[in-house]
Amino acid sequence: MTIDAPSKTRRLEIFYFDAGGGHRNAMTALSRLIEKTHPEWTVVPVDLQKLLEPIDPVHRLTQKITGSLQKILLPVAPRLPIAPIQAQDIYNNALKRGATRGLGAILPILQGFIRRFSAEIERLLVERWRAEPRPDLVISVIPNFNRVMHRALQTADPSIPYLTVITDMVDVPPHFWMEDQAQYIVCGTPKATDQARATGFYRETDIFEVSGMILKEQFYLPPAPHALTLSDLGLAENRPTAMIMFGGNGARRATMTILDQLEKSPLGIQSIVMCGKNAALKKALKGRPNCCAVGFVQTVPDYLRLADFLIGKPGPGSVSEAVHLGRPVIVEGSASTMPQERPNLDWIRDNGVGLVVRSFRKEIAGAAERMLADLPRFQANIAQNLPENRAVFEVVEIIGKILDETAHQKRAV
Question: Does the residue 339 lie in any domain?
Answer without folding.
Answer: yes
